[in-house]
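Running this now, will post back.
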Amino acid sequence: MVSARLQLGNSRRSDQFPLSIVRSCHSFEGNERDAMLLEIDAITKSFPDSEGRVPVLQGVSLGLEAGQTLALTGDSGSGKSTLLHIASGLEQPDTGAVRLDGTDLTQLDDSARALLRRNDIALVFQQFNLIPSLNVAANIAFQARLAGRADNAHIKTITAALGLDPYLGKYPETLSGGQQQRVAIARALAAKPKVLLADEPTGNLDENTAEDVLAQMMELVAQTGAALMVVTHSPHVAGRMDRQVHLRGGVIG
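Update: finished.
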């Protein structure tokens, strides 16, 4: 159970924040609330099989503003995780564009996309992707240090908020799935990204811990002004987001 609470304003949970306050709590200078931070424009993607190519995404377009949260829902196989990977630059679309602060990721080479992910995008994977040779403290600080934004006070706030202080010296293999998920979320938030992309971030957590982690994640996103896109099957998680987008058969429906 996560017992610590991030102190933001008067310590209210994120779902109790007036929307006007959430919308104003971003720290990216010159990036107004009505400016689109992440733009996904007419994305198509297909994968080969024995009989040709199978379409996965068919002309998907959506956008995210700074400080906005979005739930991406749909049945298994509808293309949610593929879209998340394309939004992060981990995969290239067949056609279309992905723009982050006006920079089209599809026009960058592998090295440039990796640099952009390091500096501006944080991902929370279903598989956690923690570094086994690093302890929890080092895993949490890893991306922030690469990006040159290792803020010890910020990291301490996150670890306390997510109930990770007792585990900082432990290694990933000694943690439960839920504890590893919290470490992965802490690592993403510690880097102060412009965009946070999360694939089923509460899928490995019990109901109570999932609620606490979700609340803290949204509070931290609101505090820094990052945009948040969450892939989820949970109606509860989806309902906590500003917007919901449903994928069906590779199209928004």
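Residues 1-33 have pLDDT under 50 and may be disordered. More later if anyone needs it.
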